[in-house]
Amino acid sequence: MTDTLKTWKYRIVSRRELMELDGHMLRDIGLSDLEAQTEASKPFWRA
Predict the structure, then answer these.
(1) Is the pLDDT of residue 1 over 90?
(2) Domain span at residue 32?
(3) Which residues are in the YjiS-like domain (predicted)?
(4) In a domain, 12, yes or no
(5) What is the pLDDT of residues 13-23, one digit of tens each?
């Protein structure tokens, strides 16, 4: 697998996991609900 494909897969998985966090967990990592939604809604090819 190329580095680009690995990066895209990582982003897909990370963004899905981000959406599973509740508000308390998001605050623990320094994100608001809106910031998490904004990040998770990005296409996988966009950093």
Answers:
(1) no
(2) 3-40
(3) 4-32
(4) yes
(5) 999 999 999 99
| Full-model pTM | 0.82
Residue 20 lies in a domain: yes
Domain count of the chain?
1
Q: At what angle do helices 3-20 and 33-40 cross, to 10 degrees?
A: 150
3-state helix, strand, coil in the chain (%, to 5): 70, 0, 30
Residue 39 CA to residue 19 CA, distance in Å, equals 9
Residue 47 inside a domain? The answer is no
Mean pLDDT of 23-40: 97
